[in-house]
Design a protein that fits this description.
The structure is a homodimer of 209-residue chains. With 209 residues, chain A is an all-alpha fold. Chain A is 72% helix and 0% strand. Chain A has 2 domains: 40 residues, Homeodomain-like (Arc Repressor Mutant, subunit A, Orthogonal Bundle); 148 residues, Tetracycline Repressor, domain 2 (Orthogonal Bundle), CATH 1.10.357.10. Chain A has 9 helices and no strands. In chain A, helix 6 crosses helix 8 and helix 7 crosses helix 8. Chain A starts with 16 loop residues before the first helix and ends with a helix. Chains A and B meet through helix 6, helix 7, helix 8 and helix 9 of A and helix 6, helix 7, helix 8 and helix 9 of B. The structure holds a DNA duplex (30 and 30 nucleotides). Chains A, B: This is TetR family transcriptional regulator. Chains A, B: InterPro entries: Homeodomain-like_sf, HTH-type_TetR-like_transc_reg, HTH_TetR, Tet_transcr_reg_TetR-rel_C_sf, TetR_C_Proteobacteria.
Chain lengths: 209, 209
Amino acid sequence: MTNQSVTTGGSRRPQARPSEILAAALELFAEKGFSATRMDDVAARAGLSKAGVYLYFKDKTALLKALVNELAGANIAVARGIVEAHQGPVSPLVATILAFLATQVRHTRFPELIKIVIAESRAHPDVGQLYLDTVINQGLPLFEGLIRRGIASGEFRAVDPALAARLMIGPMLLAIIWKTVFEPIGAEALDIEAYAAQHADIFLRGIRS
Amino acid sequence: MTNQSVTTGGSRRPQARPSEILAAALELFAEKGFSATRMDDVAARAGLSKAGVYLYFKDKTALLKALVNELAGANIAVARGIVEAHQGPVSPLVATILAFLATQVRHTRFPELIKIVIAESRAHPDVGQLYLDTVINQGLPLFEGLIRRGIASGEFRAVDPALAARLMIGPMLLAIIWKTVFEPIGAEALDIEAYAAQHADIFLRGIRS
DNA sequence: GTTGTTACTGACTGGTTAGTCATAATGGCA
DNA sequence: TGCCATTATGACTAACCAGTCAGTAACAAC
């Protein structure tokens, strides 16, 4: 909240501004959606004026792009770390990855961000493109490689790795939509960890040799 | 296209209007999204003036609601028919349902409609609510019952039916998002029928006893 | 204190569009 | 032919909000 940056007190905090603005934007986008969030709101929550926001971000869209880069990119990096550090049979790794995704879905703003990208990608194709490059085209090959490893080691039967990778994350997308779209309008909550665990169980039984 | 209704020729066709307007709205919503579609556009494509549209529909939202009722309701009715007509082991029925959903995803506007509901449900909660009532709360129990039947007959092991029903349709949601969000911005096309077939294969192996 | 620079703001503009309303055309019917 | 209910429209308004800009405040350096 208070100034931790290089410059001294008062209201001049150029170093801290961008992350403060992004934090405000993320909260508001998650609460109200992208279109319904006014730049005045973002500015107010970040503690400056609307014109001030434009000193740090070119566009409303630039806020969304920065958030996609920050959040999604971080998640993918973690997933990649988990995958690359792992030795031995891949089945438990699949379960671990799905459990990791479940906690991300439950405890972070990641689901809301994905929902917003989905909702806005027609109006802002560059945001969709960024998500495609940053998340999809990073994540899918990662999971695809995982399936390939399992097939190569004889753990899995010879399924199509590209399709299997999508089948692995498809249910997590449903969880994301469920949480961000249907729970807010009165659908009963989904136990995401249990759901991911059952998914891992069924999926692994389904592809093992 | 031409007048099939009770009144004679000219431009007065009150019987045919609503479906003409809905057809125009569906096309435009699918092409440009809900928010980006102007009521003037809908009116123009339906062949009347904007004010004319308001003689038949209260709201822009009313168009969307009518479309959800029409398309989604019809699909659910067909799925229910397939399920209830089926006798014998449920495994092939699961495969049939998934193949049916795949053709719907490939050949109808259903995916676009779902995407729009997802995108707009925060701004128009009543649309989300309608979808929840018309599709989710009709479809999920249907699939859940299917899983129960399989468990009761000894075909499937004792998985949680509520979770399994969601796991059954989760991958189809991914296919929908893939087609409506990522393919338009350059992602390679997904072979939905093959994807659904592999899903049926893996899923059924995963839950059989 | 004066000057230069950086950070910041209030007030404004321009474009957009859902929804309305007074008015007009249409066609069945007496 | 003229009447009336129904069907239709052009023109308008009221609200909304992203993005701009001329000007102001704060600070650093000397």
